[in-house]
Amino acid sequence: MDLDASPMTDRVNLREELEAVGSEEILTQLDRELIGLKPVKTRIREIASLLLIERIRKRMNLTTDTPTLHMSFTGNPGTGKTTVALRIAGILHRLGFVRRGHVVSVTRDELVGQYIGHTAPKTKEVLKKAMGGVLFIDEAYYLNRPDNERDYGQEAIEILLQVMESQREDLVVILAGYGDRMEKFFASNPGFRSRIAHHIDFPDYSNDELLAIAELMLHDMNYKFSDEARQAFIRYIAARVTQPLFSNARSIRNALDRMRLRQANRLVADLDRMLDADDVMSLQASDVLASRVFLKDKS
Amino acid sequence: MRITQGCFSFLPDLTDEQISRQVQYCLEKGWAVNIEFTDDPHPRNSFWEMWGLPMFDLRDAAGVMMELGQCRKVYGNSYIRLSAFDNSHGWESVRLSFIVNRPKDEPGFRLERHEMAGRNIRYTTKSYAVDRPEGGRYG
After folding, report:
1. Which one of A26, A112, A194, B77 has the fewest CB atoms closer than 10 angstroms to its CB?
2. What is the nearest CA distance from B98 to chain A, expressed in angstroms?
3. Which helix (H) or strand (E) holds A75?
């Protein structure tokens, strides 16, 4: 991987090595900025440790094959799969397992062509762009359409598998999608399952975690809840979680966007008022309670 | 006779690692590296055929090297060159090109004399390789 041959060493100070690499920084950032996701964080920590040791082993000339780093992320919508993929790319880059550390995020559209002979160049182009970094395939199960035997998805899968196997040191592939459908996808493509070393499942967030996420998002947008609004939002989460089409953090983000709309509308309604920074920053209980979620609750 | 055109052509042939580092240099400059091949070695032959599509937006040389490997499998006994295209305003042209693959056996050129009126002579160079039809020029 490193083109400059490093001298062989027999003693390594782990702490110094860790600091030199700087992956710890990204890991703590991950802990701080991503709420919940305990199993995911533990798994990433494990992978990071493995890679650190692997790096040291290489310096001691205890060579092994490049570890397989392809991963699959399964979990419900809005559980942070894409966000984590971006961070993983950073960690792998720091540890020197990918050379550039960029993420190319694609879906079926960018891999599969529309007519015969269109798929292979398309898939290869994406693969070439992703080399030296991470290829993130969102909703990977759409690649395969078992109901349509003339579908070109299978061709894309074959090219992917071939490159995943032969160019492990150039490219890390991360497949993401909802749990049950990924399960079916792997069942019909056993080659994929065996080439992926790390299957990471993203759990749903608890209500407390969702509140913490909301607070963090608001903080980033320079907004805040008033105390009553926070109480109302706790009830909002409890009601929203039970409704269909709930997609975790994404639903929270959308809810916050709608509350900002209502807040703006409320402020504009009273034109003669003098506003201070606190007024434009805080969301009031009425902004939360106007939500459709509560309407349904009452009826 | 070893033909010399493009960059590095007076140096010994570049190894794959050297090619890969040159490609990486080009990519870091923001140039698109493309693969071209031909079996007509004349220095004025500017119509080389392109292998695959132009490769824009690459970040790492591995992608180019993968294509080069495949091109060599098919046209291993022809000339293959890499050209780095700069699409930035004001340049919009090839900034660097170098040969990365050549036939095992390069027969060289002969000088042809064309006699004109009044004992004038015009000279032209012609490769021995192009005496054979396209596709069969290098064995």
Report:
1. A194
2. 21
3. strand A71-75
Closest Cα partner for B35 from B64, B9, B6? B64
Q: Measured between beta carbons, which residues in chain B are less than 8 angstroms from residue A129?
A: 57-59, 63
A170 touches chain B (CB under 8 A): yes
Secondary structure (3-state) at A27:
helix
Of residues B71 and A10, which shows the higher confidence score? B71
Q: Tell me: the pLDDT tens digits for A67-122?
A: 888 999 998 888 888 888 888 888 888 878 888 889 999 999 999 988 888 999 99
* Sequential DSSP letters for B20-80: HHHHHHHHHTTPEEEEEEES---TT---PEE-SS---S--SHHHHHHHHHHHHHHHTTSEE
Any alpha helices (H) in A65-114, and if so which ranges?
81-94, 108-111
Instruction: Give how far the C-alpha of residue A16 lies from the chain's centroid of Cα atoms, to the nearest Å.
Output: 29
In sign, the C-alpha dihedral spanning B50, B103, B97, B4 is: negative
Q: Which band of pLDDT confidence, cut at 50, 70 and 90, is reported for residue B62?
A: very high
Count of other CB atoms within 10 angstroms of residue A112: 22
Q: What is the pTM of this model?
A: 0.82
Tokens of B61: 């040389």
Distance from CA of A100 to the nearest CA of B (A): 7
CA A179 remoteness from chain centre = 14
Q: Which residues contact A87 (CB under 8 A, 6 or more apart)?
A: A26, A29, A30, A34, A44
Q: What is the pLDDT of residue B24?
A: 95
Residues of A in contact with B21 (CB under 8 A): 3
